[in-house]
Amino acid sequence: MGRKQTKSGKIRLTEVAKLAGVSPITASRFFRNPEALSLSKRERVDSAVKELGYVPNLAARALASHRTEVIGVVIPSLTNNVFADVLRGIYDSSEGSRYSIQLANTRYSILQEEKLLRLFRAQKPAGLIVTGINQTAESRKVLETMNCPVTQIMEIGDSPVDMMVGFSHYDAAFAAISHILEQGRRRIGFLGARMDPRVQRRFEGYRDAMKTASLFDPNLVVTTSVPTTVTLGGTLFADLLARTAEIDAVFCVNDDLALGVLFECQRRQIAVPRDLAIVGFNDLEFMASAVPSLTSVRTNRYEMGRHAVTMVIDAIEGRRPQEPVLDLGFQLMVRESSMPQNS
Amino acid sequence: MGRKQTKSGKIRLTEVAKLAGVSPITASRFFRNPEALSLSKRERVDSAVKELGYVPNLAARALASHRTEVIGVVIPSLTNNVFADVLRGIYDSSEGSRYSIQLANTRYSILQEEKLLRLFRAQKPAGLIVTGINQTAESRKVLETMNCPVTQIMEIGDSPVDMMVGFSHYDAAFAAISHILEQGRRRIGFLGARMDPRVQRRFEGYRDAMKTASLFDPNLVVTTSVPTTVTLGGTLFADLLARTAEIDAVFCVNDDLALGVLFECQRRQIAVPRDLAIVGFNDLEFMASAVPSLTSVRTNRYEMGRHAVTMVIDAIEGRRPQEPVLDLGFQLMVRESSMPQNS
DNA sequence: CAATCCGATGGTAGCGCTGTCAATAATTGT
DNA sequence: ACAATTATTGACAGCGCTACCATCGGATTG
Asked: Pfam families this protein is in (chains A, B) (predicted)?
């Protein structure tokens, strides 16, 4: 014979059905489509479930139905505040739907990403949300064989695996630099940390804006592959100053670095914005609160999360968007730190 | 007859076994216990898997084996930086093990927590990590019927569901206040936001330390249920000043509030630490970088995550710790913001 | 050389649920 | 009133994998 007898303590759907006096399949329908049951049976199954404390077996459900109600989310970092807002949008939007969110963290490792995508594929998620558009060829292959709607978030590009929600990091950086140039600043430093693909694109926006104004100078660029911290902002700024003293503005690829620069200026008695303009990226909450308040590029992270989930759920349920790529844009939040020098 | 024929495109373990010239059960063992196979069969199965692009079906695996290799993690917030570090520890520690992490976010809602725990139970996780010790009676019941190792993190208490890793928020706050008192400060304000159970315990530490010195005054306490932001730190501090001008120190329940207080001081020309001492909680990275650098209570969040995973995995594999409750303590990081007034 | 053990492999029977289709009961139209 | 349609319900098989033995050859032992 096979394995040992089913323990009498185990409560399966069959037991519930028996107690309710219906067939197992009717009890099954109680969970998936209660409206299809007559009111009397619905009530009987409901009370049987409660009486027995029935806990459905999701594995059996998934095996029999060939699907799950899980939306996978793959992000590169939990430490980076940027993703906290995206995730807030994702969770807010998924709440009230039948789908639950399963989060996975690549920690900026493309190997880890491949591994996680493979794991997700084996779980047959109902939908998937992944960060960025620079997946490896291998990861892309996994995504294409995922057999469910996929949304890439955080940036936009020409060849979506399926759908995309994001904005142009290039344009956003370009706009920020243009703003600084309009304030009459000429020597604009670039501080970059953990140069992931999106940060790289911000650099390109900076570079091209500077080149357009014939002001690009490699000496103005300081980058590192180290992850971002506030302290690092101060360090990179010190490096920049050591390299060339003639600096009248700094563009930081994120707000933590910008805050670090501000602190370093306070330490060195550099007046902001008189002696130096500071512009960050993402517009985290503290930027408006700093003294002086810090200019930044607001990215619509919460909305990005919301839209990503909505698009995925709609696609799961057969309502595909007409346009697979959604650009949520950005807003330049001009504050005291980038006011003109004579103000 | 039953459902339609299995699509010929679908690759199951049977197909792999056939190609490798072994029985399905041998192919199955290839994944779970490769050492048990002879070298020749191992190689044959390996190449068959690669040739067919076999993707195991986790639902079938879970159904047949009655278990999964998922460790569930339940936290109240992703926005709160504190959890980012805990999660980093969790992910670091789980890497290299066979277990994968599944994250769920209650958003500080106890109803959401009950729902998520029920969902986890239906998934039969191998282990579970939950935040805090203040679960509802219902949640606790679900945890107790989870049938897998459970570790509560972030704080410690007397009645663990199973295991615990954390520290005493009460003691930490008490120590911070004692330090401020030792600097000769007498009127120490308390700023608190989103008064979750752990923040509540920090308040109790503050209150008792102040009472011990006969300095407790309800007018010094400003709290709100609103979630924490840097800006809110400034607002609460302004409220405190409006209520009583004689303040020579502020204890903030977290570092974001402390930074907000610092900015507000800069705006109001209040000299720190001469006119006011500021002490935060958690010791986020920016505290050391601020000007002046800000005193805080370092909590061992990364270690907490690491230990939680290790304890859970050990317990899954039958190595239960002798002592179910692990206290990781805290360190007071004294910096410029709480130096004596005459310095 | 029989008795014993051990490592490698396979056969069988489910795990608990749902898709498919058929059957039945209730309702409607003419 | 009777056929046609629509709501409910049920029977059956099987999703893809693994637990539980059974087996079988070969090594070890006395």
From this structure: LacI, Peripla_BP_3
Within this chain, do residues B75 and B149 fall inside the same structural domain, yes or no? Answer: yes
Q: What is the dihedral of CA B90, B95, B97, B102, to 10 degrees?
A: 50
Q: Which residue is nearest to nucleotide D16 (CA to C1')?
A: B60
Q: Could you tell me if B286 and B318 lie in one domain?
A: no
| Chain A residues in contact with B266 (beta carbon < 8 A) | 291
Question: Residue B132 carries which DSSP code?
Answer: -
CATH of the domain at B51: 1.10.260
Same domain? For A110 and A96 the reply is: yes
Residues near strand D (C-beta below 7 A) are: A 2-4, 22-26, 29, 36-38, 40-41, 60, 63-64, 66; B 1-3, 6, 10, 12-14, 24-25, 28, 31-32, 54, 56-57, 60-61, 63-66
Q: Is B88 close to A102, i.e. CB distance below 8 A?
A: no
Residues of chain B contacting residue A2, judged by C-beta atoms under 8 Å apart: none
Cβ contact, residue pair A286, B56, below 8 Å: no
Virtual CA dihedral for A257, A262, A268, A270, nearest 10 degrees? 130
Per mean pLDDT, which range of A30-44, A239-253, B159-173 is the poorest?
A30-44
Nearest CB to B91 within list A59, A84, A105: A105
| Whether residue B153 sits in one domain with residue B183 | no
Nucleotide nearest to B24 (CA to C1'): C10
**How confident is the model at residue A253, as a pLDDT?**
98
Tell me which of B75, B143, B285, B289 to substitute to probe the interface with A (most A C-beta atoms closer than 10 Å): B289
Nearest nucleotide to B29 by CA–C1' distance?
A: D18
Flag whether pLDDT at A4 surpasses 70: no
D chain positions with any atom within 7 Å of a protein CB: 7-21
Spatial distance between the Cα atoms of B199 and B241, rounded to a whole number of angstroms? 22
Q: CA-to-CA distance for B156 and B169, rounded, in angstroms?
A: 9
B79-117 confidence digits (pLDDT tens): 888 999 999 999 999 988 889 898 899 999 999 999 999
Quick one: A188 and A131 in the same domain? no
- What percentage of chain B carries pLDDT values higher than 70? 97
pLDDT grade for B36, boundaries at 50, 70 and 90: confident
User: Taking 80 as the threshold, does the pLDDT of residue A68 lie above it?
Assistant: yes
Alpha helices of B66-144 — where are they, by DSSP H? 81-94, 110-123, 137-144
Does position A204 have pLDDT exceeding 60, yes or no?
A: yes
Q: Structural domain of residue A80, as residue ranges? A: 70-167+301-329
A54, closest residue in chain B (CA to CA): B122
- Residue B4 near residue B11 (C-beta atoms within 8 A): no
Give chain B positions within 8 Å (CB) of A267.
291
Domain assignment present for residue B288? The answer is: yes
Specify if B65 maps to a domain.
no
Q: Are residues A131 and A85 in the same domain?
A: yes
Does B75 lie in the same domain as B35?
no
| Count of domains forming chain B | 3
B115 in any annotated domain: yes
Q: At A287, which CATH number? A: 3.40.50.2300
**Are B263 and A289 in contact (CB < 8 Å)?**
yes
- In this prediction, residues A19-46 reach a mean pLDDT of 90
